[in-house]
Design a protein that fits this description.
4 domains; D-amino Acid Aminotransferase, Chain A, domain 1; 29% helix; Rossmann fold; five-stranded parallel beta sheet; Dna Ligase, domain 1; alpha+beta
Length: 423
């Protein structure tokens, strides 16, 4: 098979790593890719939102399967365009990707089908949002309705902060058109858990659990980011939690989307909050999480192509999804100043060390080639992932491996997975 992966981050590098292991695949392409993905794939400088060029490229290269990794092209309808051209594609169609594309839609869906989530209200009028805040309980959460690179969520401790948040999202349009509508919801407390799942429109098979660290600084301080590191599995995701979510969240979501005439095929990411009242859905994503994919996919025993094809063909019920009985931790190496301002084009050294050690991975997020050298090309530069027999060992291994890689302005959190010490 010839496979095309659409995207350029650590998630797509993790997908490429799995695709390269499949005996069904003999050629991989990626648009636009990065310096790490280039180890497995022939990269082409086509942007993820250049749908016509992607379709033409897939036709020219006689691609058998396209895996769309990123949220923007999924929400924009790339899968629809590929299918219309007779090209097999993995990911939800546009009418199903709205599960991530509109937080107002997903909240209304959960309310309609009794899927547990935080209490909320939707607003398109900033004045009505401000009036609502006058009677609200604090802290409170403001969410831009649309896609905002994982940064469109503001946690406000006071009325003053919340007023400023409404201004930021709806009036100043910091997140662009994503802020045309806004969700205001109750602040939930508890442990966060991420559960990725494969879906074929009817059947859902969940993957092993994980937990992300969103804030830029140690101790969960600083600005929200696309993710500063992950661990898998989560010790807080117990059998009882899993049984509850199987009954009231996972299948219920798949059935709800089908009932709405929006059958979902692809990956649903469930962001869960384990509250005192039980698990509740924080958010849905319509694709693999990043950096969650970087700790979940290396632990998957299945051939990813077999699972992906089962999702497309509606035969996922015949797949036995299996994961290694171990643990993995990913520490993101970022450029200092992320997620605000940071330098690019800084040379990276030490990447060859990962080829010498089994169970260690370096997934590229923001990298590119400058001649023969690999240099930084983004805020999140690399995801250093390591396995271990348990979370403690995986964490020690991952942090040891972060020392193999050097570039100017290298920045990382030092407490990824620290919560596991409290489990």
């Amino acid at each position: 098979m010839k496979v095309l992966i659409v995207g350029s981050g650590g998630r797509e590098h993790a997908i490429a790593y799995c695709v390269a292991k499949s005996e069904k695949v003999d050629k991989i392409y990626c648009t636009p890719g990065n310096a790490g993905i280039a180890e497995y794939a022939q990269c082409a400088p086509i942007g993820a939102m250049e749908f016509d060029k992607i379709v033409a490229f897939a036709r020219e290269k006689e691609i058998d399967l396209v895996i769309v990794g990123m949220d923007d092209p999924l929400v924009g309808g790339l899968v629809d365009e590929l299918e219309a051209a007779g090209i097999r594609a993995f990911g939800p169609r546009k009418n199903a990707a709205i599960l991530e594309g509109s937080k107002a839609f997903s909240k209304d869906l959960m309310k309609k089908y009794n899927i547990p989530t935080a209490a909320y209200e939707n607003f398109t009028d900033p004045q009505k949002a401000l009036a609502y805040l006058e009677t609200a309980k604090f802290p409170i959460v403001l969410k831009a309705d649309g896609l905002a690179l994982g940064k469109g969520v503001l946690i406000c401790s006071t009325l003053e902060e919340a007023r400023e948040g409404v201004k930021t999202i709806m009036l100043d349009k910091k997140f662009g058109s994503a802020g045309n509508e806004m969700v205001i919801e109750e602040f939930m407390t508890g442990r966060e858990v991420s559960v990725l799942s494969f879906v074929d429109g009817n059947t859902i098979k969940t993957m092993t659990s994980a937990q992300d660290h969103k804030r830029a600084g140690d101790g969960d301080t600083g600005l929200n980011t696309g993710g500063m590191g992950t661990f898998s599995p989560s010790p807080f995701y117990t059998k009882e939690v899993e049984e509850f979510c199987n009954k009231y969240v996972y299948q219920a979501t798949v059935d709800a989307m089908k009932a709405e005439g929006r059958p979902f095929k692809g990956v649903i990411f469930f962001g869960l909050m384990l509250t005192e009242e039980g698990p509740k859905v924080l958010e849905y994503n319509a694709r693999f999480g990043d950096p969650e994919a970087q700790v979940v996919l290396p632990r998957m025993k299945n051939d990813i192509i077999e699972v992906v094809e089962a999702c497309i063909d509606g035969t996922l019920d015949q797949v036995d999804l299996e994961f290694e009985d171990n643990a993995a931790v990913c520490v993101v190496l970022a450029s200092d100043g992320y997620p605000v301002e940071y330098k690019k084009g800084l040379p990276i050294s030490g990447l060859e060390e990962f080829e010498k050690h089994e169970g260690y991975y370096c997934f590229h997020a923001g990298t590119k080639f400058d001649g023969d050298r690999i240099v930084t090309n983004g805020g999140r530069v690399l995801g250093v992932t390591a396995k271990g027999k348990d979370l403690k060992e995986a964490r020690e291994n991952a942090y040891a491996a972060t020392q193999w890689v050097q570039f100017d302005n290298k920045y990382m959190r030092h407490d990824i997975g620290k919560a596991i010490d409290e489990a």
